């Protein structure tokens, strides 16, 4: 599978394509946090995006990039998390079928949300092979288009619109940091940032227990035998091949944080910004806190990716 | 004490006065919540205001309404809650002293926040008489101006700017609902709303255990022998005299909700809007949920007043 990286033009097209459906999310500032950290922080609140996560942008762009003929057959993906839900919601905006392959044992609440958004669930064994086989089977039976969660040009382009918007809302940023899971967000955002201003330094925050992107960059090749172990459930995905290429081309520096650091930053975000954010999102603030000197005096954009939290089971 | 109600012009002046210091808070929409409730809900997010509550608007307007001569002597209030903190922050924007009278036994975390904001604390016994005596003593010793939390013209005017802003962001609202404690917010917002459009229906949400405004309106006179008992800590204040007058003049209808209803609505707000809001704020959604038929098909503004929550002690 040879997936092209999107261009800045494709990201601009994506922004126009998703505008009728996606929220323009606010950027929040917090003078007391700035003073505490010694940098100017601009929080891009994708937890306030439709569906509670940035994922809707990529899914929506993929759905609306299809021809009418393709669209009529629907879309399919394998994801029991935010992407599955986002694709279901995006398909609903176009009135086309969404098929979501989910592993046995996935969290019931998440599956219910995906079904409520109108998707058809297809269950399979909880292995990568079973997942891909089931998705291929659905594709063959229905003619649906596969929309991969991150190794997909239109998905990356849609997710890059986060930074297009951020740079309109907060001018003159020196640096931008996003969490890194599969790398769809980070690659789209890096291409968008450097399409506008080549001097913006790009960073990625990764949990120490899922630091495959850091390891892959250090080794010069993607590692794929790796079992992530972190409380950051949104970041347990291995970096995709095209995504890793984008990270390398755009000199994205990875900062790894421990689960404890991510949880402490999550709590700080809830208390100071008054936002419900996922622990995966909090890695970006944890990274800035950890490497305060590196960010001292700079204008930093932090992408808060989502807010889909089980509020009955908080990690503190 | 004969406190005048502010005019719409005074509210417009307040908006200009506080603009350099206060946040323009976002209005959030949530299509799924709208569908569930059968109304169009516009959430005005004052939990994202400086200091995490709408209180900053009133305090800031009061501080910047003083002459230089008055300002030099500072300001004083008695409040261990959001208003004390807001006044401390507002005084800091003008570089003048803030004195806050706090009862023995007030929550340590709140007092620390007020001190951190730069205020001078004055302790007294936890009675209304002791509080007022101590505030008078500070006034005499320092020449500071008393800024009452709600029975104060400039405070009401500042708090009314919430609705000026809301009606710019969401045009054509049919109804607006705010929580009711002392009534500063409700009176300021009613005057602002009807200064713009006399047809907007105004509502107040009150916890059943602190329904003194509802009782006072029913009886035609302010009740003052009443001990509030509710989990909504921001609403344990009795309605002020000028505030009650404003509620009557503007035909504000009160909807009372139980603590359980407020807590359920708080949880729903956290889960759907991804916002940290206080249980006091959630009374507005609880009221709309409770009287769904009354709001059916209408465009409703809901003021989410604050997000200062002890996230280690959530009420569910």
From TrEMBL, chains A, B:
Species of origin: Dyella caseinilytica
Source taxon at top rank: Bacteria
Domain (Tryptophan synthase beta chain-like PALP) ranges: 21-306
PANTHER family: SERINE / THREONINE RACEMASE FAMILY MEMBER (PTHR43050), SERINE RACEMASE (PTHR43050:SF1)
Pfam family for this entry, one: PALP
Alphabetical UniProt keywords: Magnesium, Pyridoxal phosphate
Keyword Magnesium (UniProt): yes
Name this protein carries in UniProt: Pyridoxal-phosphate dependent enzyme
Annotated coiled-coil segments of the chain: none
Cofactor: Mn(2+); pyridoxal 5'-phosphate; Mg(2+); Ca(2+)
Keyword Metal-binding recorded: no
């Amino acid at each position: 599978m040879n997936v092209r990286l999107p261009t800045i033009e494709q990201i601009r097209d994506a922004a126009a394509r998703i505008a009728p459906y996606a929220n323009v999310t606010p950027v929040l500032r917090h003078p007391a946090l700035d003073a505490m950290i010694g940098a100017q922080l601009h929080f891009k609140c994708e937890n306030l995006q439709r569906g509670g996560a940035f994922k809707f942008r990529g899914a929506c762009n993929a759905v609306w990039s299809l021809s009418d003929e393709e669209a009529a057959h629907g879309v399919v993906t394998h994801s029991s998390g935010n992407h599955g839900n986002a694709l279901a919601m995006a398909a609903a905006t176009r009135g086309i079928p969404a098929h979501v392959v989910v592993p046995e044992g996935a969290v019931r609440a998440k599956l219910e949300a995906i079904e409520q958004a109108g998707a058809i669930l297809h269950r399979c064994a909880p292995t990568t092979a079973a997942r891909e086989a089931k998705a291929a089977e659905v594709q063959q039976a229905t003619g649906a288009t596969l929309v991969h969660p991150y190794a997909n040009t239109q998905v990356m382009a849609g997710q890059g619109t986060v930074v297009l918007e951020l740079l309109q809302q907060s001018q003159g940023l020196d640096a931008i940091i996003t969490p890194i899971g599969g790398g769809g967000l980070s690659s789209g955002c890096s291409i968008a940032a450097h399409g506008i201003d080549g001097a913006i330094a790009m960073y990625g925050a990764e949990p120490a227990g899922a630091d495959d992107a850091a390891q892959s960059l250090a080794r010069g090749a993607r590692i794929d035998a790796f079992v992530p172990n972190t409380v950051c459930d949104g970041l347990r995905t291995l970096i995709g091949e095209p995504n890793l290429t984008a990270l390398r081309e755009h000199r994205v520096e990875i900062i790894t944080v421990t689960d404890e650091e991510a949880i402490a930053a999550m709590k700080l975000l809830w208390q100071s910004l008054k936002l419900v954010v996922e622990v995966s999102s909090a890695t970006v603030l944890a990274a800035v806190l950890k490497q305060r000197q590196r960010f001292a005096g700079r204008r930093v954009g932090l992408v808060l990716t989502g807010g889909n939290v089980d509020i009955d089971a908080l990690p503190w």
